[in-house]
Design goal:
single chain; mainly beta; rod-shaped; DUF2382
């Protein structure tokens, strides 16, 4: 700059004392955020129901009760006993004779029978599938997202 020139931001004073006034300028920057939709993604879940055969084993128990007449005189009572898979419960009664005598009237045989059977049942199974779709811009068409697979 030439010493004879006055810069444009300098305001010359009209005072006789040759004062020069300078204006100080400061710039301020305001930063903001603006949201612009460039596309969208949506995810949908679809549940499919399908009947499927399922193999399973069913177990059952049956109790078979058989009364076996004995009608035999005994001296004392016996406790219930087990013979194999059969529980034997003695049943006693007093019968009048010339003298009172304990008599084993009958035995009740109780046997438990276990069976198993393999069967196939139809069962309703659910499976879920996620569908991811993407669109370009706010008004674009929804298309399957190839990157989500």
């Amino acid at each position: 700059m030439n010493p004879d020139e006055t810069p444009s931001h300098v305001t010359p004073s009209t005072d006789s004392s040759d004062e020069v006034r300078l204006a100080a300028v400061q710039e301020e920057l305001a930063v903001g955020v603006r949201t612009t939709e460039t596309g969208s993604v949506r995810v949908r879940k679809v549940v499919h129901e399908e009947m499927q055969p399922v193999s399973m084993r069913l177990a059952t128990e049956q109790v078979e009760v058989t009364r076996v007449p004995v009608n035999q005189a005994v001296d004392e009572r016996a406790e219930p006993r087990r013979e194999g898979d059969t529980l034997i419960v003695p049943v006693y009664e007093y019968v009048p004779v010339v003298r009172m005598q304990l008599s084993l009237k009958e035995e009740v045989h109780i046997r438990t029978i276990h069976t198993q059977q393999d069967v196939v049942q139809q069962v309703l199974l659910n499976s879920e599938e996620l569908i991811v779709e993407r669109r370009e811009g706010p008004d674009g068409e929804w298309k399957p997202d190839q990157t989500a697979e």
